[in-house]
Automatic annotation (TrEMBL):
<dbReference type="GO" id="GO:0009164">
    <property type="term" value="P:nucleoside catabolic process"/>
</dbReference>
<keyword id="KW-0326">Glycosidase</keyword>
<dbReference type="GO" id="GO:0008930">
    <property type="term" value="F:methylthioadenosine nucleosidase activity"/>
</dbReference>
<dbReference type="InterPro" id="IPR000845">
    <property type="entry name" value="Nucleoside_phosphorylase_d"/>
</dbReference>
<protein>
    <recommendedName>
        <fullName>adenosylhomocysteine nucleosidase</fullName>
        <ecNumber>3.2.2.9</ecNumber>
    </recommendedName>
</protein>
<dbReference type="Pfam" id="PF01048">
    <property type="entry name" value="PNP_UDP_1"/>
</dbReference>
<keyword id="KW-0378">Hydrolase</keyword>
<feature type="domain" description="Nucleoside phosphorylase">
    <location>
        <begin position="2"/>
        <end position="228"/>
    </location>
</feature>
<keyword id="KW-0028">Amino-acid biosynthesis</keyword>
<keyword id="KW-0486">Methionine biosynthesis</keyword>
<dbReference type="GO" id="GO:0019284">
    <property type="term" value="P:L-methionine salvage from S-adenosylmethionine"/>
</dbReference>
<dbReference type="InterPro" id="IPR010049">
    <property type="entry name" value="MTA_SAH_Nsdase"/>
</dbReference>
<dbReference type="GO" id="GO:0008782">
    <property type="term" value="F:adenosylhomocysteine nucleosidase activity"/>
</dbReference>
<dbReference type="GO" id="GO:0005829">
    <property type="term" value="C:cytosol"/>
</dbReference>
<dbReference type="GO" id="GO:0019509">
    <property type="term" value="P:L-methionine salvage from methylthioadenosine"/>
</dbReference>
<dbReference type="InterPro" id="IPR035994">
    <property type="entry name" value="Nucleoside_phosphorylase_sf"/>
</dbReference>
<comment type="pathway">
    <text>Amino-acid biosynthesis; L-methionine biosynthesis via salvage pathway; S-methyl-5-thio-alpha-D-ribose 1-phosphate from S-methyl-5'-thioadenosine (hydrolase route): step 1/2.</text>
</comment>
Length: 230
């Protein structure tokens, strides 16, 4: 079994990359794919770049060229709601693209037109392993629920209130739901695990800079634990 591991930014993957025993390195679509062994598992790790187009291209390469059997997306995200703080972990149950809007045709906000699903569901077994990994590190707070993605860095209170009301989202980021869509179209089981870097409110970009190191450390801890359990 080969597991594809995607992060949007180099800093989200750099701790993990040090532990990869490299077998092969390839450049495709301006992305570097590292194939090798990580904690006893066959993996392909890749930094896809920010946003839904980059992450979709990357996921399709993992599917078509590397024929991965599972995909895990890790990284940081904005927290939605009062009780969620920087450093906390969110495990996606399902994902929606919050910036997909064909409401003019009567579709629900977030619905991808002419697709037979509204949300993209993470694999139940992978969610369960991710939750067990979280429970094994009791000092980490974790949440499970819907993550929404869009090509927008959210730094606005009204917008997060809308994401909460419209989608019931617990977290927002910029890649997960497009990775999820490509996995759905290729029938690849996947899960998205993120660590909170900010509360997506006014000043989120400042928190983001400050909390990225702790968020990356925490999501890497969970991923390591998960791979050992898979
Ligand atoms: N990733 C981390 N924080 C984010 C935010 N506030 N909006 C979108 N993506 C993010």
């Amino acid at each position: 079994m080969t597991i594809g591991i995607i992060a949007a930014m180099a800093e989200e993957l750099e701790i993990l990359l040090k532990d990869v025993t490299l077998e092969e390195k390839n450049e495709k679509a301006n992305m570097t794919f590292h194939k090798g062994k990580l904690y006893g598992k066959d993996v392909v790790t890749v930094v896809c770049g920010i946003g839904k187009v980059n992450s979709a291209i990357c996921t399709q390469i993992l599917a078509s060229e590397y024929k991965v059997d599972r995909i895990i997306n890790v990284g940081v995200a904005g927290g939605i709601g009062k009780n969620i703080y920087p450093g906390d972990i969110v495990v996606a149950e399902n994902l929606v693209q919050h910036d997909m809007d064909t409401t003019a045709f009567g579709d629900k906000m977030g619905q991808i037109p002419r697709l037979d699903t509204f949300d993209f569901k993470c694999n139940a077994e992978m969610i369960s392993i991710a939750k067990k990994a979280c429970e094994s590190i009791p000092e980490l707070n974790s949440f499970t629920g819907r993550i929404v993605s869009g090509d927008q860095f959210i730094a606005n209170i009204e917008k997060i209130q809308w994401l909460d009301k419209e989608f019931g989202a617990i977290s927002c980021e910029m890649e997960g739901a497009s990775i999820a869509q490509v996995c759905y179209l290729n029938s690849i089981p996947f899960v998205v695990i993120r660590s909170i870097s900010d509360n997506a409110n006014n000043g989120a970009h400042m928190d983001y800079q400050k909390f990225i190191p702790v968020a990356v450390k925490n999501s890497t801890r969970i991923l390591k634990q998960m791979l050992e359990m898979m």
